[in-house]
Design brief:
Blueprint lengths: L1 H15 L5 E8 L3 H21 L1 E9 L3 E4 L6 H6 L3 E2 L2 H10 L5 E5 L4 H4 L2 H4 L5 E3 L9 H8 L5 E2 L10 H10 L4 E7 L2 H8 L7 H10 L8 H4 L2 H13 L10 E2 L5 H5 L3 H24 L2 E10 L2 E10 L11 E8 L7 E6 L3 H16 L3
Parallel strand pairs: 1-2, 1-5, 5-6, 6-7, 9-11
Antiparallel strand pairs: 2-3, 3-4, 8-10, 8-12, 10-11, 12-13
The structure holds NADP nicotinamide-adenine-dinucleotide phosphate.
Length: 367
C-alpha cells in the first residue's frame, strides 16, 4: 500500500513539475562524507548551472543504509538532515527510480557497497549512473566489460584520484589512437602522507598514529596500509588503458609483516608495528644515503601491474611529492620522451563530490 502511495506521489510530481529543458532527477544512495557534500554542492551551484548550461538538478531521492527520503518537490541537504524519513527499502528506492515516470532520472552511488554495485547492470539498461564507488569497476573483468557496453551513461572519474583528471586523460589518449606504455602512480593519500612525512627523528608507527588522529586513515589503519584500495585503483586504471586484467594478476608487495595484519585489534596492531620501527628506519636511512626517498608506487608496464614500496631518486617525478597528494605519470607512444604528470589532492569530500557533480551535469547535457 505504502509503495503504491509512493509511486502516486512520484508520478504526480514527474508529470506536474515544471521542468527546465535540461532537468535531471537524482536518486542519491549514500549520504556520508561524499554524499552530504554532493547535496551541499548541488544546493550551492543551482543558480550557476542554470545560468551557464540551463541545467537543473532536482534531488528526488536520498538514502543511506538505514533510512530514505523521497520528496516530490526536490530535497536539499537541510531536508535530508531534518525531515522524518522512511526505513530504507532498496526495492522501493529502485522501483521509484526505474518506474516512477521521470524524464531523466540519474542514479548516484556514494556508498562503497558491493551489493549496490551488483545492481548496476540492471540500472544501466535504462538509467545512467554516476558513481564514486570503485566496487563495480574493480569486480570481475566480464562485469566491467558489460557495464561499459550499456547504452545509458556511466560516469566514474572519481574512482581514481578523486577529482584529478587521471582516467579522463587515459581515455583522451585512447581516443587519439595513442598507446599507453607505462603508468606509475601514488594512488593513496594516506600512504603518500606517511612516506612524504617519514623523516629523521620520526618513527613510522608514530606517523601512522598521527595520520589516524588527523582523520587521514580508516578507523583501522590497516585498511589503508594493506594496499587493497590502491590495487582497486590500479586495476581500474589498467582496464581503462585497454588491458584485460583481473585483481589476482596484480602483484602486491606488502611493506608490513604479517604479524601487523594478523593482530586481533588496532591496539595490538600498533604494538606489532612498533616492533617493526627499526626495520623501517633502516630502509629510510639506506634510501637517503643513496639520495633517494621511499614511495608506495603502483605500476603498469608491458601489461603487468605491480604495487610496492620503492626508493626513487631526484630524477623521478615522485621524489618531490609532498603532503597527501596523489600523483600519476603516464607514458605513451606520443608521450614517450617525457610522461604526462598529474598531481594534486586525490581524496577528500569536496573534490570527490565535485567530480560526481560534473558527471551529473555531463549527463544532463546529453541530447
Ligand atoms: N571520502 C573520499 O575522500 C573519497 C574519495 C574518492 C572516492 N570515495 C568513494 O566515495 C564513496 C563514499 O565515500 P564516503 O567517504 O562518503 O563514505 P562514508 O562517509 O562511509 O559514507 C558511505 C555512505 O554509504 C551508505 N551506505 C553504505 N552501504 C549502503 C547500502 N547498502 N545502501 C544504502 N546506503 C549505504 C552509508 O550509510 P550508513 O551511514 O547508514 O552506513 C553512508 O551514508 C566510497 O565508495 C569511497 O570509496 C571517497
Amino acid at each position: 500500500m505504502k509503495k503504491i502511495f509512493l509511486f502516486l506521489c512520484l508520478f504526480l510530481f514527474s508529470s506536474s513539475y515544471a521542468e527546465s529543458e535540461r532537468q535531471v532527477q537524482v536518486f542519491l544512495l549514500g549520504t556520508g562524507l561524499v554524499g552530504s557534500e554532493l547535496l551541499h554542492q548541488i544546493d550551492q551551484s543551482r543558480e550557476i548551472l542554470q545560468q551557464q548550461y540551463g541545467v537543473e538538478i532536482v534531488v528526488v531521492g536520498a538514502a543511506n543504509s538505514k533510512t530514505m527520503l523521497l520528496n516530490s518537490a526536490g530535497l536539499t541537504l537541510e531536508d535530508w538532515k531534518k525531515s522524518p524519513k522512511d526505513l530504507m527499502s532498496w526495492d522501493s528506492f529502485l522501483d521509484a527510480m526505474l518506474n516512477g515516470g521521470f524524464s531523466h532520472p540519474v542514479f548516484v552511488d556514494c556508498t562503497s557497497s558491493v551489493e549496490v554495485a551488483g545492481f548496476y547492470e540492471e540500472i544501466l539498461q535504462t538509467v545512467p549512473i554516476v558513481t564514486a564507488s570503485k566496487k563495480a569497476n574493480s569486480s570481475l573483468f566480464e562485469k566491467y566489460k558489460n557495464l561499459h557496453e550499456k547504452d545509458a551513461g556511466f560516469y566514474y572519474d572519481a574512482n581514481v584520484g578523486a577529482g584529478l583528471p587521471i582516467l579522463s586523460t587515459i581515455q583522451s589518449l585512447k581516443r587519439s589512437a595513442d598507446e599507453i606504455t607505462r603508468i606509475e602512480a601514488v594512488f593513496s593519500g594516506t600512504l603518500s602522507f606517511l612516506f612524504n612525512s617519514f623523516k629523521e627523528g620520526v618513527l613510522f608507527s608514530e606517523l601512522v598514529k598521527r595520520a589516524q588522529e588527523m582523520g587521514y586513515t580508516e578507523p583501522d589503519p590497516r585498511d589503508d596500509l594493506n594496499g587493497m584500495d590502491v590495487a582497486r585503483k590500479l586495476l581500474i586504471t589498467a582496464r581503462e588503458a585497454g588491458f584485460t586484467m583481473e585483481m589476482e594478476e596484480i602483484k602486491l608487495e606488502m611493506f608490513l609483516p604479517d604479524s601487523c595484519f594478523k593482530a586481533a585489534s588496532v591496539e595490538e596492531f600498533y604494538e606489532r608495528l612498533k616492533e617493526y620501527d627499526p626495520v623501517f628506519t633502516e630502509k629510510r636511512r639506506k634510501a637517503e644515503s643513496e639520495g633517494k626517498r621511499l614511495r608506495f608506487i603502483a605500476k603498469l608496464e608491458n601489461g603487468k601491474a605491480s604495487i610496492s614500496l620503492q626508493a626513487v631518486d631526484q630524477s623521478h617525478p615522485f621524489y618531490h611529492l609532498s603532503g597527501n597528494d596523489n600523483i600519476a605519470s603516464i607514458s605513451s607512444k606520443h608521450y614517450c620522451r617525457n610522461p604526462i604528470v598529474i598531481q594534486g589532492p586525490g581524496a577528500g569530500a569536496t573534490v570527490t563530490a565535485a567530480i560526481v557533480l560534473e558527471g551529473i551535469v555531463l549527463e544532463s547535457l546529453k541530447d
